[in-house]
Amino acid sequence: MKRVETMAEADVVLIGGGIMSATLGVLLHELDPTLKIQIVEALAEVAKESSNPWNNAGTGHAALCELNYTKEKADGSVEISKALEINEAFELSKQFWAYLVERGVLPAPEGFITPVPHMSFVIGKENQTYLKRRHETMASHHFFDEMEYSEDHSVIRKWAPLLLEGRRPSEPLAATRAAGGTDVNFGALTQSLVDHLASKDVVRIATHHQVRDIKRKRDGRWHLTVRNLSKNINRSIAAPFVFVGAGGASLPLLQKSGIPEGKGFGGFPVSGQFLICDDAAIVERHHAKVYGKAAVGAPPMSVPHLDTRVIDGKNTLLFGPFAGFSPKFLKSGSIFDLPGSVRLSNLVPMLAVGKDNIDLTRYLIEQVMQSPQDRLDALKEFFPAAELGDWRLLTAGQRVQIIKQDADKGGVLQFGTEIVASADGSIAALLGASPGASTAVDVMLDILGKCFSKRLPSWKDRLEKMIPSYGKSLRDDPALYRKVREKADRQLGLAGN
């Protein structure tokens, strides 16, 4: 990818070189090839923070296996509305990627997406009851009608042999399996999207450049002060629209903008670690993403999972995450990120969240204090025959959960992602974490709706070519869902899985 300096004036500035900015950049370029687009990334390369494959689980989040998206209600029934929302969002991403593959914008799909079954796995009679009810509820909807359920050890062993190695034959187990799941290398995908943009004369990519300030000037445009970290000089960029997609750094940049919509938001950073196995004899015996139930007090992104990962064509096995606490908002950030984000407008929400989340605090303390044996014991819940010498510990990326004002509680800790946009749509920031990357296209369509509403009518036909279900409901139209999914899966090399 060519490295260039910033342009003094742009139509669009995208802050952050991850999957979100890359997706919005390609969408906008496809819709209007004349737009001058500037991407600013603080690191020396794009896709090295949350989009990096070693910093995320790489699950194509479609709610096929993640139990935190299907809550059990007081009456024992299972709520699946969040699962339906996430599944549809991921299908939008697949449609867009398939379109880009067909046009030659993206390379061969096996470089960034691989068929990997998604499984949910629980232990104990009570959990069996929950998982069976969950399966019955989900399988009644066309999004999940291919999902299988079993309590039979021999069947589960066939699906994922490591789960049964060394396990007591009498132990009550249950699992679901969705053969249509995927592993996604968001780092490779982001790099390909950015490389495509970099080949365009109207697009500039400035790596090793950090946005230091964002101010609205009298001319109505946003003026950004950008530090060239290689030359230690400041640059200035003016643009009528700015998207802040800088992961954990989005909150401080949103605060610098001064828009009233950004007041009251805080951030709660959570770090993560994974156990990694590269032993081919073990890796080849497992081909699935297996998600379990979260511990009491654990944030949803800390749901334990034993994952097949495909990174740069090589299979590996990952288990975790083990949560921890760091005041940094990015893996490459500063220990002053959290204290530096405190404002009068978010102090009350942040204090309220601290008071109301004692279980989370206790959980994080326990996680930080874990020994290698403690991590092995957690792994053995999934793989009883595991041996510590076969695994290495890897520190993954930082995630910053949203803290926002609440009329009743003062403040709440919100999991997921949220778009914060100015009333006039001239600036938007993406806060939060999982399922993030998998829903990038859906999130960016929301950005278009909030920030480019006047242009949407003229873009409608083009959007429908890129995303065939645009403006329609896959959730309510089984025939449309099957039609667009089959086409996208075929173009992405996922058909028949």
UniProtKB/TrEMBL annotation:
UniProt cross-references to InterPro entries, sorted A to Z: FAD/NAD-bd_sf (IPR036188), MQO (IPR006231)
Domain of life: Bacteria
Functional pathway: Carbohydrate metabolism; tricarboxylic acid cycle; oxaloacetate from (S)-malate (quinone route): step 1/1
Segments crossing the lipid bilayer: 12-29
Keyword Oxidoreductase tagged: yes
Gene3D superfamilies attached to this UniProt entry: D-Amino Acid Oxidase, subunit A, domain 2, FAD/NAD(P)-binding domain
Molecular function, one GO term: L-malate dehydrogenase (quinone) activity
The UniProt record lists the keyword Magnesium: no
Cofactors that this protein relies on: FAD
Family membership noted in the UniProt record: Belongs to the MQO family.
NCBIfam families, sorted: mal_quin_oxido (TIGR01320), PRK05257.1-1 (NF003603), PRK05257.1-3 (NF003604), PRK05257.1-4 (NF003605), PRK05257.2-1 (NF003606), PRK05257.2-4 (NF003608), PRK05257.3-1 (NF003610), PRK05257.3-2 (NF003611)
PANTHER family: L-2-HYDROXYGLUTARATE DEHYDROGENASE, MITOCHONDRIAL (PTHR43104:SF2)
Protein name: Probable malate:quinone oxidoreductase
Lineage: Bacteria, Pseudomonadati, Verrucomicrobiota, Verrucomicrobiia, Verrucomicrobiales
